[in-house]
Amino acid sequence: MGGSEQLPHGALKGVKVLDLSRILAGPTCTQLLGDLGATVIKVENPATGGDDTRQWGPPYVVDSAGKQSDLSAYFMAANRNKHSIAVDIANAEGQRTIRRLAAEADILIENFKPGGLAKYGLDYASLRDEFPGLIYCSISGYGQTGPNSHKPGYDIMAQGFGGFMSLTGEPDGEPMKAGVGIADVMCGMYACIGILSALHHREKTGEGQQIDLSLVDSQIAWLINEGVAHLNTGMNPRRRGNEHPSIVPYGTYETADGHVILAVGNDSQFRRFMEFLKLEGLAEDPRFSTNPARLDNRDALNAILRPAVQRHTTEAVLAAMEERKVPAGPVQDLPTLFKTEQVTARNMVVDMDTVAGPVKLLGNPLNFSRTPVTYRRPPPACGDSTDEILGATSPFDLT
C-alpha cells in the first residue's frame, strides 16, 4: 500500500525555528525539532566563539592535517540538523537581523536570564505584538517568575536544588548527580513537547504564545513517585544506591565475574528466582514470601541473596533469568554497548561528515512509519551559514 511508504522528510518539514539557545537544554530541544524535519537557524555570538559547549572538550574533531576544530563531542551531541549564523545581538545591526528572522520563524527559543533580552528589544514582550503568531520558548534556571528568577542555572544546580541529588548515590555516601546532564536534557524534552503543543494551538487559533520553562521546574516534575510519596506522607526518602524504594529484590548484584541487574517485580518471579539459586524455602518464608514482607526485611534478604548470586557468572545468571522469565540485564560499559547487535539493529549510531572530518553521533530513538527522522546536516562550524542565510531573500527556504 502506497500510504505505508516512508516519506523522504520528517513530520515537521516546513517548520522554521530560530534558535538563540546554547549549552544543552535549548539545543537538545532544537536538535529534536531538526531531526523531525524543522529548519533550524542557530544564532551564535562571534565575540565568544559561539556556543559555550564548543569549548567543552576534549575530545574535539581533528581534521586530516591535525588541526583541532570547534566541534567538541559535547557540542555535537545536541547540534546536528542546524545552520549556524554568527550574529552579535548587542549591536543594532544584529538586533535587526534577529527581528528579520523572527518575522519568518514559527518558533523562537532562547535561554538568556529572565529580562536579559529586553535591553536588546528581543524579549517576548517586545516581539509579540509585531509577530502575534510567534511561539516564543524561554528556558532559564528558575523560570521567569519567583524569588530565584534572577539566578543563573546549570544542570548540577537543578539536580541539587530540585531534590534529585538527595535521592541519588549510596545510602552512606555523598549526594550524587547523574552521570550526564539529565536535568538539561529533560528540560529540553519538556520544551519540545510544549512547542509542539503551542504549534497545534496556533493551527487552531492563529495565536502564538510564550512558553516559560525552567531547569528546576522540570527537575521537580520528574521526581515522580518519590516526590508524590513525600507530598502525601511527609517522609523524607533516603538514598538507596541502585535499590528500589518499593520493590525487593531490585538493583545490581555482584556475580563471580562482574555485576548483573535484577528487577524481581512480583512474587511469582521471586519464586522462580529462588528456584535458580536453590533457595526455594525463602519463597515460603513469611519474611520474604510477598513484596511488602521483602521490603520490611530488605537487609536480611539481601544478606542471603548477595553471596548466593556471587557464586554464578553474569552469563549464567542472565541465561537462567531469561529462561525463567525473570527481568534481568547486564551492566555494560560504552565500548560493550556500542558493539551490540541491538544498537546496530535500532540505528542508534549515526555516521556524518563534518567540515573537519567524519564523526559518529547518537541516533534519535523515534521511529515513524511515515515521516522518519532524517539526518540532513552535521553539527556546524560556528557561523558556517552566515553569508548564505543573511544574503537570502527568504533565509529559512535555503534548507
What does this structure look like?
With 399 residues, the chain is an alpha/beta fold. It has 2 domains: 277 residues, 3-Layer(aba) Sandwich (Rossmann fold), CATH 3.40.50.10540; 72 residues, formyl-coa transferase, domain 3. 36% of the residues lie in helices and 16% in strands. The chain is built from 17 helices and 13 strands. The strands form 4 sheets. It has a 6-stranded parallel sheet, with helices on both faces. Helix 1 links the parallel strand 1 and strand 2. The chain is elongated and about 75 Å long. It starts with 15 loop residues before the first strand and ends in a 9-residue tail after the last helix. 35% of the residues are buried. The model has no long low-confidence stretch (mean pLDDT 96).
Span between N and C termini? 30 Å
Query: How many distinct beta strands?
Result: 13
CATH architectural designation of the largest domain: 3-Layer(aba) Sandwich
Our count of domains comes out at 2
What is the structural class? Answer: alpha/beta
Helix content: 25-40%
How is the main sheet built?
6 strands, parallel
What CATH calls the topology of the largest domain is: Rossmann fold
Uncertain runs with pLDDT below 50, 5 residues or more? Answer: none
**CATH top level class name of the largest domain:** Alpha Beta
Order of helices and strands: EHEEEHEHEHEHHHEHHEEHHHHHEHHEEH
Average pLDDT over all residues:
96
Give the DSSP E fraction (strand runs of 2 or more residues).
15-25%
The CATH homologous superfamily of the largest domain is termed Crotonobetainyl-coa:carnitine coa-transferase, domain 1
Number of distinct helices: 17
Strand order, sheet with most strands: 5-2-1-6-7-8
Rg over C-alpha atoms, rounded to the nearest angstrom: 25 Å
Q: What characteristic shape results from the CA principal axes?
A: elongated
